[in-house]
Amino acid sequence: MGEKDRVTAYDYDPAKMRASAGQKICDLPAGGGHSTRTILFRPPPDEDQLLISVGSSCNACRETDWRRAKILVIDKDGGQLQTFASGLRNAVFMRVHPATGEIWATEMGRDYLGDDLPPDEINIIKRGHDYGWPDCYGNNVPDAESPAAAGVSGACRDKTPSFLDIQAHSAPLGLDFFPSQGWPPQYRNAMLVAYHGSWNRTVPTGYKIVLYRFAERDNLLDRRDFITGWLGDEKESSSGRPVDIRIMPQGLIYISDDKAGVIYRLHRQPET
Length: 272
Fold this sequence. Notes:
Blueprint: E1 2-3, E2 6-13, E3 18-27, E4 37-41, E5 49-54, E6 70-75, E7 82-86, E8 94-96, E9 103-107, E10 120-125, E11 136-137, E12 141-142, E13 164-166, E14 172-177, E15 190-195, E16 208-214, E17 220-227, E18 242-248, E19 252-257, E20 262-267
């Protein structure tokens, strides 16, 4: 379990749905902003390694704690905590691509650069790569307010650019890929992303689930709204904010909503 200041392993009794005998795997930095801690096991042959996403303590700053604004890695039974990828302001959710075994993550860009900058991102996370924060965003664009990048030619050249850009302040969170079983052909090589929604944009954006379809493994074909309706006509009038997504082989989708305090269950109707 990823907690604000640690990762803890528990024994779990599925019959009683009860966790017990917690054992701390590692300490994590607490306090500051971005307090969620997402965990994900790497796919084989590295399934004994645990990835831990730790967001920044701030909007845009130089972190003093080396563990911040990164995805960390540690053996499942503990040991030395290490950097897996850096320059990630708040990569809240991660998912393993079912065909490639790559780690995909959503990333929320910084605030206070206006309504349309910087883009939020989807990134393919590779070990040892730096994704740019706080100096660069999107397709290796220098942040004009970063002293390390502003006006410096090539300042972002050695950073890893975003894989996909998303409308600024959409706040992408959960993502998941459609399995090959239980879904029609048009969902092959497709994924859903939850846009939690903006909090400080003049015209609110997000508050929806977006479908991404790919012609091949990572060649974007199109993106379109999949579920909408949470955002009303007036600012701050949303009825819900989607968070995480699970797409099941049986034609089921589960979506959590932290404003309405519910989990939605969607069932695909058989074609007639």
